[in-house]
Amino acid sequence: MLINDPASQVQGDYANPRLLALLAVPLRTNEAVIGILDVVNKPAGFTDDDIRPVNLFADQAAIAIEKSQMLKRIEQLAVVEERQRLARELHDSVFRRYTR
To answer: Which parts of the chain register pLDDT below 50?
Structure first.
């Protein structure tokens, strides 16, 4: 979305007089849209030539966010696996102690 005069298009509580120009592009992954990148107030306003570089930046940002989320999930899975391993060891040691 490219708007060079948002005040004329937005009414009511959402109007912001300091917003002079807006270029908004989605942050997309293979799975979904995970956010929106808003670029605002380019002094001369945005043109169609601005869309491609901002989209490229948004794609890179989406990849970085997705990677960060995946690393967090991997860390959480490692914690769960370690807890399960410790629980098995504790169970086995108690079982061996009482079955001798």
So the answer is: none
- How many domains in the chain? 1
First vs last C-alpha separation in the chain? 73
Give the angle 28-51-61 at the CA atoms, nearest 5°. 35
* One-letter amino acid for residue 52 of the chain: R
Q: Output the pTM of the full model.
A: 0.67
- 3-class secondary structure per residue, the chain: CEECCHHHHCCHHHCCCCCCCEEEEEEECCCCEEEEEEEECCCCCCCHHHHHHHHHHHHHHHHHHHHHHHHHHHHHHHHHHHHHHHHHHHHHHHHHHHHC
Segments forming the whole domain that contains residue 11: 2-99
